[in-house]
Amino acid sequence: MDEKKKILQSIGGRLQNVLQNMDEAYFLHIEEIRIRAGQPFMIRMKGKEYVVSAKGELMDSTQRGFIPTLSDIQKILEVLSRYSFYAFEEEVKEGFLTIEGGHRIGLAGKIVLENGKIKTMKNIHALNIRLSHEIKGCADGVLNYIVRHGRVHHTMIISPPGCGKTTLLRDIVRQISNGKPGVCSGYTVGVVDERGEIAGCYQGIVQNDVGMRTDVLDCCPKAQGMLMLLRSMAPQVIAVDEIGKKEDFEAIESILNAGIQLICTVHGNSLEDIKKRPILNALLEEGVFGTIIVLSGKRSIGEITEVYDENLNSIFTKKKGIMC
Amino acid sequence: MLIKWIGIVCILFSSIMTGAYLSKRFYFRAEDLAQMRRAMLILKNQILFYSMPLPDGMREISEKVGGAIGAIFATAAGQMEERQGKDAQSIWQIALEKEKGKTYFTSEDMEELHNFGRTLGYLDKGQQQSSIDLLIEYLTDKEEALRKAGQNNTKLYGSMSILVAMLTIVVLL
Amino acid sequence: MEINIVFQIAAVGILVAVLNQVLIRAGREEQAMMTTLAGLVVVLFWVIQYISTLFQTVQTLFQL
Q1: Interface contact B51-A78, CB threshold 8 A
Q2: Cβ(A279)–Cβ(A156) under 8 Å?
Q3: Domain count, chain C
Q4: How far apart, in whole angstroms, are the C-alpha atoms of residue A245 and residue A202?
Q5: Do B156 and C26 touch (CB under 8 A)?
Q6: H helices present in C1-64, as ranges
Q7: Contact A229, A192 (CB under 8 A)
């Protein structure tokens, strides 16, 4: 199967042999591969964690599976980075790398400081390979709320970490950018992808489908990126992930003044959480955001619990649920 | 009598040819070293300024440099693109061993190139740069020394070959 | 005894001398030494039987 081959290709050394023996069907559902030196090799699949034995069998976490060593991790990094660890220097400082296919590798190791700033990471002893699965069409349910009366509204997505907000944002961007017959025509969308998650750029080539009218600023600080897009690419919609810093809001103000629609995500469990944060609350009070989507991680990943309009009236509450 | 003359001509010819080859070999080795140095400079540029991935970089070098040195890079790039999960060091070694016959590198040069391969793939920019610089330094020094010795050697091997041929002829006569 | 051998030895002598000079000029004293030695050995090899005949002649002449 294709998926297995792709994953196997990017993992080298002994781990490759382990995975080689694994059933092909599993590879479609792997969410995370965790490799820690001296600890069992683990795989997260459908929300559950399994230990993998040396023969590639899945076992529950009470058993000891295959134990990778430090040199295994080095080999894997070498192959994952396509023998070009140096090319990921900036990303390593942030603690992750994005590889071909838009997958993200989280790193943990010893941090080397220089003048109080992170210079690089050495002795990397733990990897977390997060396989990005694009879920096309997961924004179908909310698109009608974002695009109302024939125009895109300012949208905020509230979600706890790891609940699918980036996946949702990516699909919203894709659909708005491509346009959807009967809902909206295509808009020019600018994406500021500070952590390379939305578009998953690898060597300047967008790996995830983010639509035909989408311009991506890869690995750019959000505040500067938004202004850059505003000045240079004349977008109609700007999408950013995880706003929260002070300078972000200054940039948002310029965007709003320029009449560009904003789609952003914030960390939080509910609307109440956001109201406690003064700057965000001010934006809410002004009624800037025409659509506020709340995701919940409680029941299943990517489930939409509430949608509010600009007056903070609930226009959708989860009854039967829009599953992604 | 005729056979004697044929023999004399044979000895003269082969000896002069051997002399020419020996003097050219220095020149070829210097040329190979220069090509390798050029390749390494390109690689350094690619790494420092473009953060280009190694397989793409090596492919580009193989196109730019060509010849036996280009073949080394082409083999390495091909192996890397195959994605069998081998580490960069062994890929580099395989490529060197495979194309060894086409180059004029001595075992000293090979040793140095293998050493360079050991640092390939997992280092950060600064370290990768210094390892490339080390190799470039070696290549430059060797090439310079060879070019200096080269002119002397060409003359020497030229006259030597004729003299040795005549000596052999006289001895055998 | 043929006169040829004298010319041959002379030729070897000249050639070795020139080779020696060339090698010394190129800074390869060791190889120069080796070629001189090789020339000497070759010439000795040719001459050795004549020397032995000489000794034998001397022996028979004085009936030793």
Answers
A1: no
A2: no
A3: 1
A4: 26
A5: yes
A6: 4-25, 29-62
A7: yes
Query: Would you say the C-alpha torsion A201, A204, A210, A216 has a positive or negative sign?
Result: positive
| C26 in B contact zone (CB under 8 Å) | yes
Which class in CATH covers the domain with range A140-317?
alpha beta
pTM over 0.80: no
Domain boundaries, chain A: 2-130, 140-317
Cα C49 from chain centroid (whole Å): 13
- From B62's Cα to the closest Cα of chain C, the distance in A is 38
Task: Write down the pLDDT at residue C53.
Answer: 92
> How would you write the pLDDT of chain B (173 residues) with one tens digit per residue?
889 999 999 999 999 999 988 888 888 889 999 999 999 999 999 988 888 888 889 999 999 988 889 999 999 999 888 877 788 888 999 999 998 888 889 899 999 999 999 888 788 888 889 999 999 999 999 999 888 887 778 888 888 899 889 888 888 87
Domain ranges of chain B: 2-172
Write down the architecture of domain A2-130 according to CATH: 2-Layer Sandwich (3.30)
Distance CA A93, CA A121 (A): 7
Q: Which residues contact A113 (CB under 8 A, 6 or more apart)?
A: A119
d(CA C17, CA C11): 10
Q: Which domain holds residue C21?
A: 4-62
Q: Are A188 and A235 in contact (CB under 8 A)?
A: yes
pLDDT at position B5 is 92
